[in-house]
Every structure is written in structure tokens, then in C-alpha cells.
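Data deposition worksheet. Section B asks for the primary sequence of the deposited chain exactly as it was used as input, without tags or linkers unless they were present during the calculation. Section C holds the resulting structure in C-alpha cell form. Section D is free text for depositor observations; keep each observation to a single sentence. Incomplete worksheets are returned to the depositor.
Section A, Depositor: J.P.
Section B:
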Amino acid sequence: MTVTRVLPLTGIHNFRDYGLYPVAGGGRVRPGLLWRSAQHGDATDADLSVVRDLGIGTVVDLRGNSERDAKPCRRYPGFAAEVLFHDGETAGLHVQAAASNPSAAEARAAMQRLYEGIAFRPTLVPMIQRYFAALQDRDGASLVHCVAGKDRTGFAVALLHHVLGVHPDDIMADYLLTNVAGNIDQRIATGAEQIRAKYGAIDEDTIRTLMGVEPEYLEAAFAAIRDAHGTMDAYLADVIGLDDAAQDKLRARFIA
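Section C:
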């Protein structure tokens, strides 16, 4: 099976289909329905033309108010998708990890600590809930994104992959694809500009750490979930409100 996953866009980074993976019991996640990316504030007209042709009807924007204000998403003419967002702040990773001008090692440790709380962040949980509600109730393709499309987005996507029965190795592979998808140098340069504008001179190694992902981050999030709830499914039911019937509905929609 030929898999075309990453779209080579110019101003929208980390834009990719997170379907296509095989699932437990047979079948695959349907392609062309589940998209993820970084923010669209620097999208070119050509990028927007590609996005328009995907037929995306729902956009789940995991950014907080200040992030959306700082970099409003560009839209193509006639854009009519519904955009879901949280009226408040949802960030916590880069803000805290970069605030003290850390070394790369310190930033890496901070990112791992912060992932330990990502599943329980009071301002992010409501958006994860809205993400899963939208996937259950809305037809057509959807897009989920944050600033870089790697932490908040990566966590949300990993949860859905778990529900759909994607193998843990593929869940991790999709998460780590952030590190190689698209124009990495341009994505890092864009992130560096924003981070340095807010926090001052931060060295290149630290910037690359802040703009990348590592297995230990997602593993830390999942370990914290298991510590608090015993299993991923218990967390999904207790915190996200995703019971067995809701999970069955998602599998019926997105597995072919």
C-alpha cells in the first residue's frame, strides 16, 4: 500500500494525514479524514488552495487566546469550516520550558515534566473533550492543530489512535514524525523567532529541543495517566467522557 501522509506545504508546517495506520483486529484508519498540523498564520495562497481541496469541515484549534491573537490563521476565500477553540489559555509547555533561558538538557527535562501534567491540564482537557465530541458527531474531514502541531496536537492524536486500536509502535511513530515531516529547518526557524521574541537569546540546541519531540515525553504522559487511572480507557472514560459506546462509534466511523 502506497502511503502519502505528509503534505509538502510552504507556510503550514507538520501538515499530515494521521489515518492509514493498521489497527488491531484488521483494517486501517480511514485516509483523508483526519488531518493534523501546526498553525496556519504563515500559510501561502498555494497552501490554502491545497487545504481547500481537502474538504475539511471542522477545525479544532488547540491554541489559547494569546496564541491565536499573535498569529491568526489565514483562510482561503469561501472558508466555511467551523473552528472550535477554548476561550482562555491552553499552553504550558514552551511557556514554562523556555521561560528561564535553559540549556538543551534543562529544556528536555522541563518538557518531560510538563508532559506528566498534559493529560490533566484544566484548560486543555475541555478542548480534548470537544475534539472527541466533534469526531463522533461531525461528518467529513477534520483538522486538529496547535502552534507547532506537536505537543497538544500530538497528545490528542495519540489518544485517538489508542481508541482506534493503532499499535503502540505506530502511535509513537506518528508522534515522532514531527521531527522529520516537511521543511524542518523552516519550522524551527519560525518557532525560534517566536520563542526568542518572548524570552530573549536562547541557543540553537535549546531551540531545537523545544521545537522537537522525544519518546520520553509521550511516555511520561501515558505513565501519568496509568498512575492516576490505572488504564488509558479508564482515563478516557473518567476525564474525557469517552465511554465504551463512544469509542465504538469512533471505531465505526474511522476504521475501514
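Section D:
The chain has one domain: 16-254.
Residues 16-254 form a domain with the Protein-Tyrosine Phosphatase; Chain A fold (CATH 3.90.190.10).
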